[in-house]
Amino acid sequence: MLNKKTIITLTILLIFPLILTACSNDTVEVKTAEDNAFLMDTLVQMRAHGENADAAVEESMKRIEEIENLMSKTIETSDIYQLNNNPNQKIEVSKQSLEVLKKAKNYAEITEGDFDPTIGALVELWGIGTKNASVPPENKIKAALANTGYQYLNLDDNYAKIIKAGVKLDLGGIAKGYAAEEVKKIVEKNGVEHAFVNLGGNVLVIGDKVDGSSWKIGIQDPRAGRGDVMAIIDAVDLTIVTSGNYERYFEENGKLYHHIIDPKTGYPAENNLLSVSIISHNSFDADALSTAVYVMGLEKGMEFIENIDDVGVMFITKELDVYLSSGLEEIVNINDPDFNLIEGEYSVN
């Protein structure tokens, strides 16, 4: 299918009548279980269909909570809190946290810092998504930038260490993807063949729908406040992770400041994009990629994704132009005439 290779985004999900129900003509009744909870600083929604659906959903929600308790930067017993508050000390961390830290550092390296898990000082300074959000003074941005850099994170066996005081980890751009993949393992272990989980815009579908059709995943119209779906993705065993400037933001002096911070400038990324959606088979990777590619921008981001097997990307620009990477034309259906599919320089046929 693919040749190559954030609580406001809930529209991705909230075509529940479309994506979460089996065909009304089905004659075989399949057991269904669902749950939702506020975890990992977002609304988590899950539904599963199958004999062991109840067990799969219950275990999955518990697992997500466990991951939050390990990787939250605000829970004092978490690995990340301990690392952030004990610089220059080797901290023994869980194998789960170590796995995420290794993946995060790897993506920092291969994206040359467009994704960086040590962005915590900048995130804290801007406070976007909190009541204290405001444009910081330039000198404070420079100070936070000096405390940003994946080279300040050392990983060794079961230990991690921040080697410079002031550097702060923030796994908000990758931990939900890890959680989604853990849910997939639990669902498959329980023999459930049809399931859906949404971690605040990080969507994973397992198998197809009960009636054999593909899941229909809506991509939110990124124009702030509209809450409409501008495209539908036909998905089977896929993850769709979207990063957009409409998810968390504030306005000051007539300018919008969104939550996707460029680790190299210390400011919200400015590149004429409204949103980036990564479509792939692995949510762990897709989570980091959606952030990194948004920071990269259209041209660099498209080239980057085209060189990764089995990963696709959809860009939406401020002009409402849509750019798709190779192969996505088969599964992405734009249903809003305000958006224009651009076939050309950045759209590979």
TrEMBL record:
Cofactor: record remark: Magnesium. Can also use manganese.
A GO term, aspect molecular function: transferase activity
Signal sequence segment: 1-24
Annotated GO CC locations: plasma membrane
Keyword Ion transport: no
Family matches, as InterPro entries: ApbE, ApbE-like_sf
Membrane topology, from the record: Lipid-anchor
Residues annotated as binding Mg(2+): 173, 287, 291
Enzyme Commission number, as recorded: 2.7.1.180
Key word S-adenosyl-L-methionine present: no
SUPFAM superfamilies attached to this UniProt entry: ApbE-like
Catalytic activity: L-threonyl-[protein] + FAD = FMN-L-threonyl-[protein] + AMP + H(+)
Subcellular location field: Cell inner membrane
Family membership noted in the UniProt record: Belongs to the ApbE family.
Biological function: Flavin transferase that catalyzes the transfer of the FMN moiety of FAD and its covalent binding to the hydroxyl group of a threonine residue in a target flavoprotein.
Protein name: FAD:protein FMN transferase
